């Protein structure tokens, strides 16, 4: 996932950097890819080749400059630090770290969706409450679907079995 992916703000979540990273332009936020690989390597405490390797296997996917060079955001650097911590302090292999990152992103997305649905439910309950108060009695309002089609139901006629019908009862 690159910095240019549409709707990727929530999908790119990573732990926040413990310390402020110097050199961030005033117009940039923590998702803006601004740091070249050498600076990102320095801030994350890793070698630039390690960052390239992590990009190839999909652990951290930095943005790209117009010329194709990697550009890392503050969030990317925080994620690199977390990868290093999990690897060195927790002893998790890279496949495990990749899965942890995927699951954390999924949890973030689900948390965001839950918040959206909770807000929508609260709005719906408030609308229902307002309509109920407007009607005067709780039983006065029933949702009705307006339609212009008419459906006529007729009971099915019993079919007489043919004399050579094997299902016919004798």
From TrEMBL:
Region of interest (Disordered), ranges: 1-25
Residue ranges that the Swiss-Prot or TrEMBL entry lists as coiled coil: 100-134
Membrane-spanning intervals of the chain: none
Pfam families in the record: MerR_1 (PF13411)
Domain of life: Bacteria
Residue span(s) of domain HTH merR-type: 34-103
Bias (Basic and acidic residues) ranges: 7-16
InterPro entries: DNA-bd_dom_put_sf, MerR-type_HTH_dom, MerR_fam
Protein's name in the database: Helix-turn-helix transcriptional regulator
SMART domains in UniProt: HTH_MERR
SUPFAM superfamilies per the UniProt record, alphabetical: Putative DNA-binding domain
Native source species: Actinomycetospora aurantiaca
This protein's UniProt keywords: Coiled coil, DNA-binding
PROSITE patterns associated with the record: HTH_MERR_2
């Amino acid at each position: 996932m690159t910095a240019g992916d549409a709707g990727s703000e929530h999908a790119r979540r990573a732990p926040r950097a413990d310390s402020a990273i110097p050199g961030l332009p005033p117009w940039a936020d923590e998702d803006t890819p601004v740091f070249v690989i050498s600076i990102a390597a320095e801030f994350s405490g890793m070698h630039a080749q390690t960052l390239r390797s992590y990009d190839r296997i999909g652990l951290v996917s930095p943005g790209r400059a117009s010329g194709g060079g990697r550009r890392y955001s503050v969030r990317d650097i925080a994620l690199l630090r977390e990868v290093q911590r999990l690897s060195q302090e927790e002893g998790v292999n890279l496949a495990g770290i990749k899965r942890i990152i995927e699951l954390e992103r999924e949890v973030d997305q689900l948390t965001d969706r839950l918040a959206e649905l909770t807000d929508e439910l609260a709005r719906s309950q408030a609308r229902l409450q307002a309509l109920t108060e407007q009607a005067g009695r709780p039983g006065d309002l029933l949702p009705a679907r307006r339609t212009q089609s008419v459906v006529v139901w007729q009971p099915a006629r019993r079919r007489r079995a043919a004399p050579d019908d094997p299902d016919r009862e004798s």
